[in-house]
Specification:
This protein is α+β, with helices and mostly antiparallel strands and 316 residues long. It has helices spanning 25-35, 41-48, 53-58, 62-78, 80-85, 117-122, 195-198, 255-265; strands spanning 2-8, 11-18, 21-24, 89-91, 97-100, 109-113, 132-136, 141-142, 148-150, 157-158, 161-167, 183-190, 193-194, 214-222, 233-238, 241-247, 273-275, 297-302, 306-314. Helix 1 (25-35) crosses helix 2 (41-48) and helix 1 packs across helix 4 (62-78).
């Protein structure tokens, strides 16, 4: 499944993408429960299939999401116009429909630095012995199509294409051999970095979590569709020029190891996001440097997931 968070006519919900359509999970679950004779269908649906992907994962709702998507698919095939009128499906191209970041307020956003050997080399950094971790906060997240805002206090804003892991099952001291069982799915994260702030000290966080700086999306592809995350082509294009191209097999620390390692430090919870690092080709390591400018369009593509595209604007 491709799970999205979207807004349509002022209402935010969670859906499953089917071609050009989004099947609404929350509304579909209400109708399915009513069909089964549940008295308080609205209340139960709010608890079991809430219109928030972090809460849906926390309530072990992926199975219900798959069930209701199959039911809505049948309803749509039987009477497409009726399904649309009942709010069970919306067309993605409808100007009243806008995709948001698939996870609006994850409990944790944990990022890896220097997780590709070629990126470590281009920055003249030693290959790390252990995962290099830093964090972002939800204030930084934006969705597909939303503008990356260049803050007026930074003149060195950079792009970084990354595969992101979404946790689906809580765990502490997770065994590496079973770590992928805790993954709900995968998405794309552009770890936009304000380099002049990042390198002011030994901690990177201040250059990594500016407001409205980090695109996430366009959706979460469930783990059953990507059984092996170590073999995905990954690239970044800025205003038509391909500046990064690699494969996730080149990671120094693979996804399973990263999940297990982080779980030694903290309990991983449903909806947590782990950004797995970027390959070589970032702007500040180029000669001449290629940093983001107003008017740029950044497109990050990861195989089996899709493309995350965002324009770049100056802060007003």
């Amino acid at each position: 499944m491709r799970l999205v968070t979207y807004i349509a006519r002022g209402r935010t919900s969670v859906g499953v993408v089917e071609g050009e359509w989004i099947l609404d999970i929350s509304r579909g679950w209400v109708e399915l429960l009513r069909q089964r004779g549940v008295v308080d269908a609205e209340g139960r649906a709010q608890a079991e299939c809430p219109p928030d992907l972090v809460l849906l994962l926390a309530r072990d709702g992926l199975g219900r999401a798959a069930e209701v998507a199959a039911w809505v698919r049948e309803e749509f095939a039987r009477d497409g116009e009726g399904a649309v009128a009942r709010g069970l499906a919306v067309r993605m191209s409808d100007p009243a429909v806008r995709l948001r970041a698939p996870l609006l307020r994850p409990g944790k956003i944990i990022c890896l630095g220097l997780n590709y050997a070629d990126h470590a080399r281009e920055t003249n950094s030693p290959v790390p012995q252990y995962p290099e971790l830093f964090n972002k906060f939800a204030n930084a997240l934006i969705g597909p199509g939303e503008p990356i805002v260049l803050p007026r206090v930074s003149q060195q804003v950079d792009y970084e294409a990354e595969l992101a892991v979404v946790i689906g099952r809580a765990g502490r001291y997770i065994d590496e051999s079973r770590a992928l069982e805790h993954v709900a799915g995968y998405t794309i994260l552009n770890d936009v970095s304000m380099r002049d702030f990042q390198f002011r000290g030994r901690q990177w966080m201040q250059g990594k979590t500016f407001d409205r700086s980090t695109p996430l999306g366009p959706w979460v592809v469930t783990a059953d569709e990507i059984p092996d995350p170590q073999g995905l082509e990954i690239s970044c294009e800025v205003s038509g020029e391909v500046l990064q191209r690699s494969n996730t097999r080149e990671m120094i620390f693979h996804v399973a190891h990263v999940v297990a390692y982080i779980s030694q430090i903290m309990t991983l919870e449903p909806g947590d996001v782990i950004a797995t690092g970027t390959p070589a080709g970032v702007g500040f390591a180029r000669e001449p440097k290629r940093l983001l400018r107003p008017g740029d369009v950044v497109r990050v593509t990861v195989e089996k997931i899709g493309t995350l595209e965002n324009p770049v604007v100056a802060e007003e």
